[in-house]
Specification:
This protein is mainly α and about 45 residues long. The chain contains one helix and no strands. Helices cover about 85% and strands about 0% of the residues. The longest helix has about 35 residues.
Amino acid sequence: MNITLLSFYILIWPALAMGVLVLLFVALFRDIRAAKKKGKDLV
């Protein structure tokens, strides 16, 4: 039982990190599209 919980704990971190990374890329993509639509630079 303990090894199962430890394995789950270790394996969940890459999944959480990937989720945050995807969220950041989606937000960046939306910001880039919004800036292009307004005719402005992102920076």
